[in-house]
């Protein structure tokens, strides 16, 4: 079997080609990418300070809630290899901002191999189309039970729950409300706490 060299320059990739997880493991460049059904999606540059603040606050609440429970919480960068029904094996690797995994048999040294139970994506100006369409369709198809879309610009959180294989959107959670997980009913966070500014 031929050993292929690592790729250290993003510009050497053919963006019209389909790639696999084995290809993904050979990429050693500074750009962050995700692989969705074999196609490369370049992630936004380093997240803004507000994005990072929001991520840390949600992670704090999640960590506090899930400590001493069987579910594990992970923050990006953390590779999640998604199972594509009737698709090519190992053709999709994403890095959600946060994810909760309750079936720990899905965890290995490379990250998570299977759909997390809950995924949180925090929108940035450069990636809203990807989160709202491509990733939402992907998470629905792969069986992610609950999906939060956090919108710092609008200080709102949209929660989608999987019912009969399709996402159903709950009413938007805005300031003055507490966002509540349907999957984990005791997990509640005040929206104003998530978006509080220094």
* Number of β-strand runs: 15
At the fourth CATH level, what is the homologous superfamily of the largest domain?
tt1808, chain A
Overall average pLDDT: 90
Q: Which geometry do the CA atoms define?
A: globular
> How many H/I helices?
4
Largest sheet: 7 strands, mixed
Question: H/E order of the elements?
Answer: HEEHEEEEEEEHEEEEEEH
Give the C-level CATH assignment of the largest domain: Alpha Beta
Helical coverage, percent range: 10-25%
What is the level-2 CATH architecture name of the largest domain?
A: Alpha-Beta Complex
- Number of discrete domains: 2
Quick synopsis:
By secondary structure, the protein is α+β, with helices and mostly antiparallel strands.
Characterize the structure shown.
The protein has about 200 residues and is α+β, with helices and mostly antiparallel strands. It folds into two domains: about 10-40, no CATH class; about 50-195, tt1808, chain A, CATH 3.90.1570. It has four helices and 15 strands. Strands 3, 6, 9, 10, 11, 12 and 13 form a seven-stranded mixed β-sheet that branches. It has a four-stranded mixed β-sheet with strand order 5-4-8-7, with no helix packed on it. A two-stranded antiparallel sheet has the order 1-2. The longest helix is centred in the N-terminal third of the chain and has 18 residues, at about 50-65. It starts with 20 loop residues before the first helix and ends with a helix. About 30% of the residues are buried.
């Amino acid at each position: 079997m031929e050993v292929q060299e690592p790729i250290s320059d993003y510009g050497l990739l053919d963006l019209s080609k389909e790639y696999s997880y084995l290809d993904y493991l050979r990429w050693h460049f500074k750009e962050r990418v995700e692989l969705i059904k074999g196609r490369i999606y370049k992630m936004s540059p380093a997240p803004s300070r507000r994005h990072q603040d929001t991520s840390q606050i949600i992670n704090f609440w999640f960590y506090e809630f899930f400590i001493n429970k069987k579910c594990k919480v992970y923050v990006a960068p953390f590779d999640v290899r998604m199972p594509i029904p009737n698709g090519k094996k190992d053709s999709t690797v994403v890095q959600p901002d946060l994810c909760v995994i309750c079936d720990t048999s899905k965890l290995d040294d490379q990250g998570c191999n299977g759909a997390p139970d809950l995924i949180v994506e925090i929108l940035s100006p450069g990636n809203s189309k990807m989160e709202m369409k491509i990733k939402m369709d992907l998470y629905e198809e792969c069986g992610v039970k609950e999906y939060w879309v956090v919108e710092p610009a609008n200080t709102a959180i949209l929660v989608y729950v999987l019912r009969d294989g399709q996402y159903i959107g709950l009413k938007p959670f805005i300031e003055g409300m507490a966002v509540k997980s349907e999957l984990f009913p005791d997990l509640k966070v005040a929206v104003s706490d998530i978006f509080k500014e220094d």
